[in-house]
Every structure is written in structure tokens, then in C-alpha cells.
Amino acid sequence: MSGDETLWADGHSQSDIRQGVTLEVFGEGASMGPLTDEVRKYAQQMQGDIKYPITWSTLAEGLAALQRHGVSCNVASFMGADNPRTMVLGFANRAPTPAELRKMEQITEQAMREGALGVASALIYAPGTYAKTDELIALARVASKYNGIYISHMRSEGDRLIEAVDELLTIAREAHIRAEIYHLKASGKANWPKLDEVIRKVEAAREQGLAITADMYTYTAGATGLDASMPTWVQEGGYNEWVKRLKDSAIRERVLAEMRSTTGNWENLRIEASKVLLVAFKNDALKPLTGKTLDEVAAMRGKTPEETAIDLVIEDGSRVGTVYFLMSEDNVRREAGLPWVSFGADEESQAPEGVFLKSNPHPRAYGNFARFLGKYVRDQHVTTLQDAVRRLSALPAGNLRLRERGQLKPGFFADVVVFDPAKIEDHATFEKPHQYSTGVVDVFVNGTAVMRDGEHTGATPGRVVWGPGRKDQ
Predict the structure, then answer these.
(1) Cβ–Cβ contacts within 10 Å for residue 84, how many?
(2) Domains, the chain, ranges and CATH?
(3) For residues 107 and 123, what is the distance between their CA atoms, to the nearest angstrom?
(4) Distance from the CA of 323 to the CA of which of 141, 212, 306, 360 falls in 20 to 30 A?
């Protein structure tokens, strides 16, 4: 997801500011630019409850437009690895020719010069899953020239988790680039013990000189869509082609069989999840199903969960927003104590009002950072408060090579958070996610108070934070 959508509806970034977040980073897999006219048209078509005009073509233009719109937080973005792929290949499931790859590299180079933080891939989703390792290495090499980072929602977080980590390490070595694992996790109960080997591999690579880090959210469930319950081959060509295939009875039967199989060559989150919660619909007629599980809706309709998932995608005009319960609390606690892990909500900023109430976000939108400081640091002592603050500020700023950010130093931008360690707490739940965290007192962004005594001031001093490849900062 590009991640900027909610700020067009409300630039105050309430759910993040109230946790002390001063920078929102976009671009997992797909970013707000660069775009062709065709890709822009598709992005406009796939908008849900929040609608806004996409008037830009480049990543820099999109970020600048958001700053002009007015935001309380700072904003920055990776270039999604999907973007050059869709600009050159569309949504085709094939490798680029040498000439096409050179064009994709040129697109990446332009984005890095404009201020992208690096290249970000999302390899369990179409069209990102169609990219082979050599393609990713090529794009990452370009990012490395501009001191960027390669960050990845890896090809597997479940049955092929170890192989996915190996791929990320290979890309880091071959491209000579820093690399980060998006939302570190082991999905599916059978895979929970694999976290030991993941940590061993990362720490061995770090000892060998590779700059490998990870980020995480502090919950045992992830949020994505019903596309993660279906084979990626059926999604080739984008949403319209996907639905066209699902309406073909022969293809539907093949998809149903693969959705029920545990031996497929794709990441089937429904098989791994203990529960699938339906949280975001585009079609108003389906919104009453928000908050129900896929199994509950299947029972209501007298169909199997697999048939229901297919029907909902067709009926909704979207992939349907879902929450998958996948992870182990013991693993979350362990990850939260690792010194090379920072934190990302993997969710857009929200507010408990207006258009945001038309769907249920994952509670991490309102609670990820407060939950880390309250539950895991204060109550469970997974690390010290000092280390926690470092991993919420200096560590990610350093990983992303942000200039004059992330520390309290003379000459640095005054992005400052004042919070009460004894009171900071998250309140959002999966059943009632639209609840602000408490315990943050004051927040300053670029020296301007956006929160005073626990209340938002309405100020919008946020600006674009450019990546290291941009010279005119």
C-alpha cells in the first residue's frame, strides 16, 4: 500500500500524533509515485471510502502535494518495487526483458534522485510476487548508489520463512545495500519455532558486516486483504482481470482447490490463520458485515469460507480488508526485545470520526507505539526505557539515513515527544479499534506544537523528509 490515503481525508494524523509519531513513512510494495497515466487511473479506480484526485506523476510531486495539503506529521516514502514494474510491464506475470529492466532501473534512479528512501517490495502480493530475485537485486543496486535501503515484506512469513530471509540477505549482499525486514514475524503455529533461525541468520549476517535490521508491530494478528487467501496467478492483470477469472466456473473450481490446499507455492494466509476478521468493505451493501469473521459470514450464506471469500471479492469491488490471526504472543515479546528491531504500525493514521468510521482498522493504527512502551517496556520489561526510545527514534532515523532527525541535538529538527512512562497505554481492540492511546502529553513537529497537554492543537507543520539521494534538501 502507498499509505498516504487517510492523510488526504484528515491531515491531522490524530491516531499517530497521539502516540508521539512525528514521521509517517509510505511505500510498502506500491508508492504514490512514479506513475503512468494507466497506473494512476487504476489507483483512482481502487480507492475506497476515501476519495481524492491523483494529480501527480512522480513520487516527489505526490509528497509535495501532500505537504501543501497540510499535515501535522512529517512524511517520507520508499519507491515501491511495484511501481517501475507496473509502469513497464503492467500487471503481467513475467520477467522483464533486458531492455525493460534497464527502463525499470532508470525509473528507480529518478525516484532515488527525487528523494525516495530506497526500494520497498511486497513479495506475497500481486504484482510484487511476480518479481524474481535478480530483478530485485537490479533495482536495489540502483538504490544503493544513492545510499538508499532495500526493505521487504518478504516472499514468505510462514512455511518458506527461512528461504525468504535467505533471499533478503542475498539481495543485500549482491546489491551492497542495507536491508530491512518489514514486520518481522513467523506466521502460522507450525512456523512459530522458526523465529529462532531467523534471528540467528540476521545476527550472523550483522556480524559479517551486513547492515540488516527489521521492524515490527506489537500484535499477534496482521491486516491485509482476501487476496492473501488466493493464489497470485489468478490476480494477474489487476482487480478487473482477477474478478473476470473468478467468475469463470472452471477457474473458480481450480482456485477453490488451491485455497484449500496446504501444499501450494504461494503464501495462503487463510490456511495459516486461526481466525480471519472482515474489517473493510468498499460496497455499502456489505458494510454490515464489518467485524464478523469469514467463517461467520460463510455460515450466514450457507457456503464454505473459500466460496465466501471469492464471492465477497467479486461483490465488493475490492480485495476486502481483513485481519488474520497468525502469530505467537511469546514471539512478539521476544521480537520486541531485539536491539536491531524498530517499530512500524503498518497502518494508516486514523481518527474516531467521519469517513474513518466506515471501516475497522487494525488496532495497531491507534496503539502500536503506546503498546510497546506500556505493555512490553513498562509492564513486561522486555528492554529498558532508554533503549525503547532509541528504537523509536534514533535507530529508524539512522537506518533510513534521515538528516538531522531522530535525536535531541543542536541543529537538528525539533521533532519532540513528551510522554508519561507510567501512564502511556493503548486502548484500541480488534472489536473496538477506534480508540486513542493515552499518556502522550506534548508533541512538537519541526518545532511547532501539534499536541499540548494531551490535545491536538490543529497545527499542520509537517513537511517532506527526503531520502539521502536528494541533494537540494
Answers:
(1) 29
(2) 5-220+328-456 (3.20.20.140), 224-325 (no CATH)
(3) 20
(4) 212
